Structure formats: C-alpha cells, structure tokens
Amino acid sequence: MTHSQLDSxxxxxxxxSLLNNGVSPEGIPEQLGIHRATVxxxxxxxxxxxxxxxxxxxxxxxxxxxxxxxxxxLTKIYIFKIREEYHNCCGEKIKYxxxxxxxxxVSVATIYHILGQRFVLRSKWKKYAKRGFVRKGVKPRExxxxxxVDFGDIFAFTAVDxxxxxxxVVMKSELTSQAGKEALVEQLKQFxxxxxxxxDGGHEFKLHWQDYAVKxxxxxxxxxxxxxxxxxxxxxxxxxxxxxxxxxATYKQQDLNKIQTKVNEFLNYYHLKRPHLSLNMKTPAEFxxxxxx
Length: 293
Prior knowledge:
Blueprint: H1 8-20, H2 28-32, H3 36-49, H4 51-62, H5 73-85, H6 91-102, H7 108-115, E1 144-150, E2 155-161, E3 167-172, H8 177-191, E4 196-199, H9 208-216, E5 219-222, H10 232-246, H11 256-272, H12 284-290
Parallel strand pairs: 1-4, 4-5
Antiparallel strand pairs: 1-2, 2-3
Helix pairs in contact: 1-4, 3-4, 5-6, 6-7, 8-9, 10-11
C-alpha cells in the first residue's frame, strides 16, 4: 500500500510509532506523504492528549459538515458603505479600509462573497482584459508611470520617467480623482509633455483624472491588478521616497504644506545629487541634460 492510499488516522498512528522508534520528524513527511508542519502539529497534540485521545478527537472533528462562518451584519454594512464611498473599489482596498476605519478583519474572498449578495460582479475568468504590452521609455518623456502612496491623512501622488528616472511628488489631503487631476496638472507642468502614462486601477485615476488625461496625453494604460512588476519603476521610486524621505510614519492633514516642502527638498537632492545605478551613476538631472531635453 502506498502512502497515498493511507487514511489520516492510519497516518497518525504510523507517525506516532515512528516517533517512538526514534525516527526524526524531518524524515517522516516523505514516508507518509504529508507536510512537515503536519508532523509537528500532530506531535504537539499527541504530547498534550496522548495518542488514543488525540485519535478520538480527530475522528470526532471530521464527523459532520462544518457550519460556515458568519459575518456579522454590521461588518456587511461597512463593506457596502466603503464600496459606495470609494467608487466601487476592489476587495483588497475594501479589506484595508475596513481594518483601518472600523477595526474589522475580513478576508478578500469573504468580501467578494458579501458583495455578490447585492451586486453582479464580473466573472474572475474575464477579470484581466487585454491591455497591451508594458512600454519602457527609450527617450525622455516617452513613458511615465504614476501611483499613490498612503501616508495616513495625506497622500503622495507620484510619477517617474522610466528613461531618465526624473520624478514628481504632489502631496494631497484626499485620495480622490479630483485630487489626482490636480496632481496630474502639476506633473505635466514639470515634465512639459507626456507621450504615454501608465497608472493602476485605483479610483483616484478615474473620473476627473481620466477626463483630463485623455485631453493632454496621447496614450494611457492601466496596469493589471496584482502585477506589481508592471509598475516596477514607480514602485521602486515609492520605496525610495519612504526610505530616504518620509519613512513609514503617518501624517495629519495640517502637516500637508510642511510635508510638501520636505518632499520638494528631497526631490532637489534626488535630481541633482543622488547618483542612480541604472544611469551609470549619473544623477537624473545630469542624464536628462545629456539627452538634451
């Protein structure tokens, strides 16, 4: 009989016998076809209860159908409220906002299950529409990647030129499409022009942002959900912004002007003094000047 034909109770008894005969727990998983963590979990229970009681409890636990866990009605209300307030945002953002605003921890799968009780959600098989290839700039201003970073009550609207690595950071007190539009206006002034811009699917890059972008930028692409490698350049810059400037602290709305000033000072250092490995140790400003922007 192969280990795949053994039932769980038989595996538990053999596991106990092997342990009593001095076999290392590291060698048991391969013999029984189970995970190493399972062996250590069984060892702990056998030590606590003894083999006979553990087997009885294990058999009892497997009898009957488990009752599904129920989400309390108040949590459901919060989920629907967040979805409406944040323009039909995704389950990942609902999970984050639910924990941040209400101290409720619910899995993404449960959130979508609850939303499915009221809304007709898109099939997961149709979730990823064709969006075209991810462009990488081969000249200044050809490709800009943009994103946002949450700093508590204020938000950084970030953008980076994938070729020259020049960056823009506009701090806002709201994570809305109107705030996104205002940030884009300032970013366009800094970059002068943008041939192609890539954003994620956040609500801050829809409505007002979208209306303004289509009028001033010839090409717009939305990165696929959960594909952070498609936003690699801006994700890298966001990490630099946290590590070298603002850290992982949270800030209040009244700190907005002070933080923007601090960010501007950092950007001056970033562009003029900080050498960049991918630019052969040139600063973004030096590299941009070399390209004769």
